[in-house]
Amino acid sequence: MDSLKAFLAGLGIADPFGSGFLSVLVTFFTALIFTWFFIPRLRDFAVQVGWADQPNARRLNKEPVPNAGGLGIFAGFVVSIIVAWAMRPILVELVNIQVLAIMLGASIMVLTGFIDDQFNLSPLTRLLVQLLVSVLLIVNGLKIDFNAIPFLPVLPHALAGPLSTLLTIVWIVGLTNAVNLMDGVDGVVGGVGFVVSMVLLATAAQFTDRAAAVVLLAGLAGACMGYLRYNFNPSRIFMGDAGAYLIGFTLASVSLLGTLKFSAGASLLVPLIVLALPVLDTTQVVIGRLARGIRNPLGHPDKTHIHHRVLARTASARRTAVILWCVALACGAVGMLLQGIHWPVIVATVLVVGACLAFVALRRMRAHTREKTPVKEI
């Protein structure tokens, strides 16, 4: 028993029978179970009211598919956080206002994304809302310290302050849109969101002062996994901008909560590496569009994203999703290694994440087989 406790302590689980670890499990499974059972009912309602993506040249679906999955992810996420808050097993009072700011910002982003899914908001409107929620976080103390960025000179506060604000806005708006731009193939964003959430969760769990970040990430990871059960190809429902905005914004904002700031010199290097896939995808797309003379690179969709390139080579949405999951997980492992996380934690994280993804993918494939099987009339 002592050796088991020592092993678990090495994974960041100081007391496997304590209320803190229990709260993380309850948060994760509350989000997972709620989303798992809520999505089918949400899908039926979305079909009735016409919340659906119509087929076009850029989309892979050949028939209308409900696009309200983001509401299901958000519902599971919120319910799990409420349950965790009611348990109050860990000290989060010091960051209560910041957590509430993240939840409020996430709510605004989901609402904006959902309205955009149904009525097509202008890029300027979406950008203004993203700037608004960025300011919301900043005024509540969630801000990147410019002087904490490695390899850059330490500047006077009068100059470092405005630069910190600008950098924070770029971080939040950039990651939110980067995740949204990846949402082009069944299962990609849901799976990548789950991977990144679990990697950041495992890393944050190594530090005793980051309990609030662990709880938020557990809720997001559980909700993503529950949604992925219906989104792995062939998808039964899409998350839409509402879900992609939720995932991107939450990951960006939680990283400002101190999840991975293991020293002033490292700043946001680790979450940047963990989130390398959406960041690199957006970077290469924007550069490519600018090179082709497109003045508004985010307002002219095309098929130059990484997931489109992988799909063109594999000719399989399932293989494309799995490949990008593996890339995201590899980036996460590298980020944890640079964080200084012990290798047993990294290995355990990779195995758990891989097992969870395999589980939901197999469940979706089996369900699809049953859906195709004709019902015999009696």
TrEMBL record:
InterPro entries cross-referenced by the UniProt entry: Glycosyl_transferase_4
Keyword NAD: no
Localization per Swiss-Prot or TrEMBL: Cell membrane
Keywords assigned: Cell membrane, Membrane, Transferase, Transmembrane, Transmembrane helix
Gene name of this polypeptide: tagO
Residues passing through the membrane, by range: 20-39, 68-88, 94-115, 127-149, 155-175, 187-205, 211-230, 242-262, 268-287, 321-338, 344-362
GO molecular function: transferase activity
UniProt cross-references to Pfam families, sorted A to Z: Glycos_transf_4
Chief location bin: membrane
Membrane topology: Multi-pass membrane protein
Protein name: Undecaprenyl-phosphate N-acetylglucosaminyl 1-phosphate transferase
